[in-house]
Input
Amino acid sequence: MLDLGVPIDSLPLFNHSQNNKKNYKETFPFIFNDNLDYLRHLYNIGKLRGVTYDHIQKTILCGSIYLGWDFYECPVCHQETIIPHSCHSRFCTKCGVKETKQRSAYVSSMALDAHHRHIVFTIPWELREFFIKDRNSLNLLFVAARNTLACLFNDDKFRKNKRKNKNKLFSPKKSKTKYKYKNDRDKVIFGSVMTLHTFGRDLKWNPHIHCLVCEEAYDTKKNKMRNFSFMSYEKLRKTWMYQCLDILTPFFDDEYLKLKKDLYRICENGFYVYAKKRENQNDDSIEECINYITRYTSRPPMAESRIVEYNPQTKQIHWFFNRHEDDERVDVIEHVHDFLNKVILHCPNENFKMTRYYGFYSNKYKPTLDRIYEIYGKKIKKRLKTTQQRKQSYKNKLNEFKYRYHMIQSYSKDPIQCQCGEIMIYAYTYNPFEGGESNDRRYREKCLNESRNLHRRGNIIFSRT
Output
């Protein structure tokens, strides 16, 4: 399969002794690889989407030479080494943690040095099945959450227009866009970062929005920052229910319209929204709050530490979760196929953005962001960093997440330092997906077949450093 010019068994990544992790069986790559025939069967009969199967293939091959590598050579003793490429899969814990840290660094670099509120927008179980039938409709949850915040921050403007029209039936002008107050003048602009979560702690289908919203908003009419630390929970819940049900109406059938009427009758207080203000929040930093919200981005449906034991012979898996109501631990022992059916359900569509930026955190308001920093800096009597300074700080922070820096900081070992003490020089990169295979899925399938044959002969392709 791979013509490397050297015996494949001599490559260090195929040395079985390197894979001596005690609990390696309790990881997603091992579980996926051990049940690959079942997953292939689901894909062949059309019960597994192509994008999900692609992520499963990448997860199994992560850390192997099949996804490509960078080649280094010592200029003194000519010792050679290769550094394999990562998979960037939705099911890979190692890649997900790194991407989460990068996302956290980006949000930290542009976030206003003010209090931020963590809000969770949820929907009742009756609505969840509509989103699993049409995954593209998950975009509407972002829009509904954004519109809810826009109505909350521009409540004064809504009431003013209503008073002007008190002698006649008040009906706001219908906008061509589905985003509320997007093209209005003299509006209040908020800043928010939203992430979509499709799973609960028990891995059931439960789409909801995690939102990090700044409690300081920009009033374009008065050219100043306004504080919105107080939020009416009742108004927040009812507005979220209205915006959510209203924006979904044109996309579903008569069955939804009947359910919509029932939900208005049943949920008198609106849909549940968690917006409790965090205690012991540091006034001088929002790093803790940002790390809390960004941990929901680019991560697998569950942490591998929650997998207690997996038995390849009996195909039984033992995992646990802490119940949301009382934080009590619940242990689950089930067949691995049932477990996989829950996990693979939460893979998003290809190119679907799980993280969205709204208000002055969006690209539209990047030119005016410096002015917002300046105005808020005058309010708190503190000089804030400019956009260019924040960009440079973000680039410096990204260096900490590079492979070499991470290995040195974590293991006190330079991966490109030769045994003779000299630093190896980069020679070339091998990328099998550049002009080689016309179908990446077919290429990875061949690699999986070859790796399983090597595994039976006592070699292994994984390198979980």
About this structure: Confidence is low (pLDDT under 50) at residues 1-22, 458-465.
